[in-house]
Amino acid sequence: MVLAPAPMRYRARVSSTREAALPAIIARALARPGPCLFLTGAGISAESGVPTFRGKEGYWVVGSRHYHPEELATRAAFGRMPAAIWRWYLHRLRVCRGAQPNLAHQAIAGLAHALGDRFLLITQNVDGLHPRAGTPRERTYEVHGNIAWMRCSRGCEGLALVPEELLASDAAERLESADRAGGAPPPLLGCARCAAWMRPHVLWFDEHYDEASFRFDSSLRAVDSAALLVVVGTTGTTNLPLQIGERAVRRGVPTLVINPEPNAFSALVQGQPETAFLQGTAGHWVPRVVALVRDAGAGVAVNPESNLKLASGVPDIAGWLAAGLKLGLGTDGAASNNDLDMFDTMRTTAMLHMLIDDDPRSMPAQTVLEMATIGGARSLGLGDRLGSLEPGKLADVIVVRMDTARQTPLYNPVSHLVYVTRGDDVRTSIINGKVIMRDRQVLTLDAAKVIADANAMAACKNH
Ligand code: APR
Question: Maximum Cα–Cα distance for the chain, whole Å?
């Protein structure tokens, strides 16, 4: 992934200890259930060339008067001069159309596809750059609306796209005469049902959030169940976004704040556990955070016997488990762990780590058995279908003999499975309900022929 360099003005700042802690914060967060929630504001589109709301570029002139955006983006101003307000919004819409999604929008869109229903975006931006980058609409709450759309100012149901004809530069100028004429909207801006003015589909400063248009309740509910909140490029001066941040911190949701400047959100996370203020631009931090979230979503296959045979080091299993990584146990291939015996692998894993950690309690048999079963399923993203015997999961079962002399006496079955059992103690194997081996007879293959073929192939290779 190519990372845009941060402009010098906004050099990325976060203490190196905190940066080193980021992967673990994110891994622990993603080990929790619930969605990974992004909350974005105008700052994320700044690097696409869309002016931020409270930046210096926001003023607008109507007649001889200079207006601040907070005065124009109101129902009251629209009531007084609908055409002038439309002219301002059409200008903004043209700016947004001319802008392209940047690396931060793209990284978030990629993550949305990777995480599926574990992803949700709440954006204050009306510029439409998130959907244009590919973030699915059903996982995007545009809590301040979208200026590409309009709706009836009297409340008739339904949204319509702002007509293309209005984006021609002279069309917007011509609108001005409608204010002077003081009344009926021009044909393109009249409601098809009641003929009242259509208005931009945005939330104005003198209006309230609601669920139907702006997903107010859904947004707050999403925070309650979130595994991680990432706040990007917003001052926190509007109601819902700040409520989201406060609620997340109050409920202990791990929270990362990305902004070149400290503000209300960075103050919220200061000194809180499992949080970080990542000072810098969205283009610098968002791709990095997204890469870490993707890595945290991935599973790790630990192959200690292969590592031993190839002298390739010992993984920090206890540390990785504590950090919330999803670990499964594997044998690796025949070239580096010849007998492919998962029971052997469990035994080696337990004993190796007790030795390395200098602690006979550091790797309990139960932990190792879980890594070999449900841990493996989770690391493949299949934990809800495989890995444990539960109603609704696939029927993957082995029957292990425990009455041989070697297995006697039996005190603890879990400890026995890890320290005593061998592959050839397995009597019966059932995969997805189908019996593959019964009482050591393989039912789906001709075992004698497979052995003969293997020998023949090995002989060929040796000549
Ligand atoms: N990367 C990340 N953040 C940036 C960048 C950047 N490159 N450039 C600027 N910022 C930050 C600024 O530091 C500031 O905190 O973006 C924020 C922009 O602030 P605002 O313009 O206030 O935008 P926002 O917080 O999204 O509020 C705008 O308020 O008036 C309402 O409805 C309106 O949705 C709009 C909202």
Answer: 101
| CATH placement of domain 19-277 | 3.40.50.1220
Indicate whether residue 259 lines ligand 1 (CB < 6 A).
yes
Spell out the domain ranges in the chain: 19-277, 300-448
Residue 140's Cα: distance from chain center in Å? 12
Q: Does 281 sit in the ligand 1 pocket, CB within 6 Å?
A: yes
R_g of the chain computed on alpha carbons: 30
Q: Which residue has the tokens 């696409």?
A: 48
Provide the whole-model pTM: 0.70
| 144 noted as active-site residue | yes
Q: How far is the CA of 253 from the centre of ligand 1 (A)?
A: 23
In the block, tokens 């999961």 appear at 393
> For 383-437, how does the pLDDT look when each residue is reduced to its tens digit (9 = 90+)?
888 999 999 999 999 999 999 999 999 999 999 999 999 999 999 999 999 999 9
As beta bridge partners, residue 41 has: none
Q: Residue 185 carries which DSSP code?
A: P
- Distance between CA 172 and CA 165 in Å, rounded? 9
- List, for residues 150-163, the tens digit of each pLDDT value: 999 999 999 999 99
